[in-house]
Design a protein that fits this description.
The chain has two helices and no strands. The protein is mostly helical and 83 residues long. Helix 1 runs antiparallel to helix 2. The chain is rod-shaped.
Protein backbone atom coordinates (compact mmCIF):
# COMPACT_ATOMS: atom_id res chain seq x y z
CA UNK A 1 0.00 0.00 0.00
CA UNK A 2 1.31 3.45 -0.88
CA UNK A 3 2.36 5.79 1.91
CA UNK A 4 0.02 8.48 0.64
CA UNK A 5 -2.90 6.02 0.85
CA UNK A 6 -2.07 5.13 4.44
CA UNK A 7 -1.82 8.81 5.38
CA UNK A 8 -5.17 9.40 3.67
CA UNK A 9 -6.76 6.66 5.79
CA UNK A 10 -5.41 8.39 8.91
CA UNK A 11 -6.87 11.69 7.75
CA UNK A 12 -10.20 10.04 7.00
CA UNK A 13 -10.24 8.49 10.47
CA UNK A 14 -9.66 11.95 11.92
CA UNK A 15 -12.62 13.33 10.00
CA UNK A 16 -14.79 10.39 11.08
CA UNK A 17 -13.87 10.94 14.72
CA UNK A 18 -14.90 14.57 14.33
CA UNK A 19 -18.31 13.50 13.07
CA UNK A 20 -18.77 11.20 16.07
CA UNK A 21 -17.64 13.93 18.47
CA UNK A 22 -20.12 16.35 16.90
CA UNK A 23 -22.96 13.84 17.29
CA UNK A 24 -22.12 13.18 20.93
CA UNK A 25 -21.75 16.91 21.62
CA UNK A 26 -25.17 17.54 20.07
CA UNK A 27 -26.80 14.79 22.11
CA UNK A 28 -25.19 16.12 25.29
CA UNK A 29 -26.36 19.66 24.49
CA UNK A 30 -29.91 18.44 23.86
CA UNK A 31 -30.07 16.59 27.15
CA UNK A 32 -28.52 19.49 29.08
CA UNK A 33 -30.92 21.94 27.45
CA UNK A 34 -33.92 19.94 28.61
CA UNK A 35 -32.56 19.61 32.14
CA UNK A 36 -31.64 23.27 32.50
CA UNK A 37 -34.93 24.29 30.85
CA UNK A 38 -36.91 22.25 33.36
CA UNK A 39 -35.10 23.92 36.28
CA UNK A 40 -35.81 27.40 34.99
CA UNK A 41 -34.01 30.74 35.24
CA UNK A 42 -32.34 29.86 38.54
CA UNK A 43 -30.16 27.40 36.58
CA UNK A 44 -28.65 30.11 34.35
CA UNK A 45 -25.33 30.50 36.25
CA UNK A 46 -24.81 26.74 36.38
CA UNK A 47 -25.70 26.43 32.73
CA UNK A 48 -23.12 29.05 31.77
CA UNK A 49 -20.41 27.16 33.64
CA UNK A 50 -21.57 23.83 32.23
CA UNK A 51 -21.67 25.13 28.66
CA UNK A 52 -18.20 26.68 28.93
CA UNK A 53 -16.66 23.52 30.33
CA UNK A 54 -18.33 21.21 27.82
CA UNK A 55 -17.36 23.48 24.92
CA UNK A 56 -13.72 23.34 26.02
CA UNK A 57 -13.74 19.59 26.63
CA UNK A 58 -15.44 18.62 23.38
CA UNK A 59 -13.18 20.97 21.44
CA UNK A 60 -10.10 19.42 23.06
CA UNK A 61 -11.29 15.87 22.48
CA UNK A 62 -12.07 16.66 18.84
CA UNK A 63 -8.67 18.22 18.19
CA UNK A 64 -6.87 15.47 20.11
CA UNK A 65 -8.54 12.68 18.18
CA UNK A 66 -7.92 14.38 14.84
CA UNK A 67 -4.24 14.92 15.57
CA UNK A 68 -3.79 11.41 17.00
CA UNK A 69 -5.36 9.66 14.02
CA UNK A 70 -3.33 11.75 11.58
CA UNK A 71 -0.15 11.05 13.53
CA UNK A 72 -0.86 7.31 13.58
CA UNK A 73 -1.50 7.46 9.83
CA UNK A 74 1.80 9.24 9.25
CA UNK A 75 3.77 6.78 11.40
CA UNK A 76 2.04 3.78 9.83
CA UNK A 77 2.80 5.20 6.37
CA UNK A 78 6.49 5.32 7.18
CA UNK A 79 6.57 1.86 8.70
CA UNK A 80 4.20 -0.03 6.43
CA UNK A 81 4.06 2.00 3.23
CA UNK A 82 5.65 1.18 -0.06
CA UNK A 83 7.89 3.75 -1.73
Amino acid sequence: MQRSDIRAVGNLAGEASSVVTTLVRGMHAGIASRVFGSIGPVAAPGRMVHDGITRAIYGSVDRGLRHATRAVGAVAAEILGDD
